[in-house]
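re: ur msg from earlier - yeah i can do the adenosine monophosphate complex, just paste it... oh wait u already did. ok heres what im feeding in:
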Amino acid sequence: MKLFFTKKKWSEYRESLTGPLGFVPTMGALHAGHLKLVHEARNNNDFVAVSIFVNPKQFNNTEDLINYPNTLEQDILVLSQAGVDAVFLPSSSEVYPENDTFITVVPGKSAEGLEGAFRPGHFEGVVNVVDRLFEWIHPHNAYFGQKDLQQCLVIQEFASEKHPNLKIVTVPTEREKNGLAMSSRNLRLSEEGRNRAAVIFEVISKMKDSTADYDWAIEYLKQYEIETEYLTNIEISLNTDTGLMTKAWVFAGYLEGIRLIDNVLYN
Ligand code: AMP
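and the outut:
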């Protein structure tokens, strides 16, 4: 497995590749959810590239950025074991050179509300870094996790205009045995917190089959010390391996000061 730290070295390598390239952008602190995207990419492309870059521009909360977990050595080990061909590890100055106008893309309508409302500037940061990565990596297929549902919708929307030949593949959420959606931020929860957080998936799975109002759910989550930021159902249009999904229950909230999100998709 090759490691690249600069666009220049990467582009020399990129020119040498002849078959389909699958790309998985990440911020590191890799877990089985990230590896699910990598396996999907490995099974459907001749070459697989993963990027690890903790993008400061998508953090609306400085503390979250400072505390973002870093497990780089372990990440590189697991990626090489997963059969990845190349890892792109740019520095911040490589991604955002001085005097560079940061904004090249404006997120579309799907960035409104939910994460877009509670994390001002987040999707602007996401689409602009992903746009740069797409330009440099130049993949045929790019893989995103359905755990970050609104991110999938925002990327789908901007890529269909700006990168029409690139296929965006969304991959189902990988969960702990107790149902908790895997997330790098889970590393910051206590063991008890990780057990309690399982109730989020339990609740949103029930919402799917209920027409009752959801005040009970917010109260129930409170009993587990989970403060809900939003819990709502939305209309979507998301291509998945099991077909087009048209609805979702989406959740965001806090436990032990850590922000957690999750969702269930249905038709
Ligand atoms: P991140 O490193 O958090 O930016 O995530 C990189 C990619 O992995 C994003 O496309 C995420 O949606 C995806 N991802 C994160 N957690 C999971 C999960 N539990 N299951 C599937 N994909 C995930």
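cool cool. The longest strand covers residues 227-240. ping me if u need the other ligands too
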